[in-house]
Amino acid sequence: MNKTKAALLALAPVAGAGLLTWVYRSTPYSIGPDGCATVNTAGKIRLGILRRLLASFGGVRSKRLGFPKVPMQTIEHRTIPTNYGEVPVTVYWPSTTSKKPLPVYVNLHGGGFVLGYPMQDDLLCRFLAHHTPCVVINVDYVLAPEQPFPTPVLQCYEVVRWVAAHAESLGLDARHLAVGGHSAGGNYSAAVALLARERQEFRLALQLLDYPSLNLAERESQKHILPRRKQVLTPELGAFFKHAYLPCPADRSNPLASPLLAEDVTGLAPALIITAEYDFLRDDGRDYAQKLRQQGVPVIYREFKGVDHAFTHFGPKEPAQEAWNLMLRTLQQAFAGKIVGQDLA
């Protein structure tokens, strides 16, 4: 090995550390003269790192939360056509002796609009499919900044519409159809419920919103910030995700981007809204539950104490298990037409 090559190899760790420092200290987006944001080089590198880390970590771990990996009768991988491209989905068919068409729950994973993949919800999808019982369709929607607003939410809506339209041929019960998601997936689920009410192409039995992001027009400084506590979702990270998904400020007040800002929510599907005491997004879910209730929508609302964003996936174990069981019971009630709005202590 010559001296030049040896010197370069010796400097590589230092250069790598310097690159990472630059990436995480730099603002990950640039604001143009029109006020719209563009994810810059530092942001693209950071996003690539975050996506790799999430993919390598995997999803919910059965040992971490204490839930077994429930076997399914069949797990089917297929694509659903939409006007925004074909969407890969994973379909979980539970083992059941019922001869009737099964209810169906469409799951939208979280990830701040820019991260995430369906398999991070695999364990939860199996749990809900088996115990409800119902068919769960886990959606691999497009991500920002490659596909910013409104493409992902419209794509999610068309997936649910396709499921409703093809339910009979698939052996599903379109009268018992629910949609739900986590964090950004909760945002999309609330927007799908708004579109379903507006377009009247199908009816939802439930919108399940797990620590949802529901007001992207609000400044990060106005969110639920705990100065003396390190939160999973920080104002800086929240701003990065928002600028990647909604580059232009004018779009952020659109109810499909910020469902909390919808003036009329009458006639929406019943809702289960789960929030976390320490979560940056806690007040989004709490305020949306209040708005829905004030306009006559049945709501089950639960704030889990002593936990932060994404606790249903990463723990602690006991509140995560409690939240999963709450999702299960509420789905069962929704499919039985028995949702009664209430706050749960």
TrEMBL record:
Family matches, as Gene3D superfamilies: alpha/beta hydrolase
Keywords (A to Z) from UniProt: Hydrolase
InterPro entries in alphabetical order: AB_hydrolase_3, AB_hydrolase_fold, GDXG_lipolytic_enzyme
Residues covered by the Alpha/beta hydrolase fold-3 domain: 106-312
Parts forming coiled coils: none
MF GO annotations: hydrolase activity
Domain of life: Bacteria
One Pfam family from the record: Abhydrolase_3
Protein name: Alpha/beta hydrolase
PANTHER family named in the record: AB HYDROLASE SUPERFAMILY PROTEIN C4A8.06C, ALPHA_BETA HYDROLASE FOLD-3 DOMAIN-CONTAINING PROTEIN-RELATED
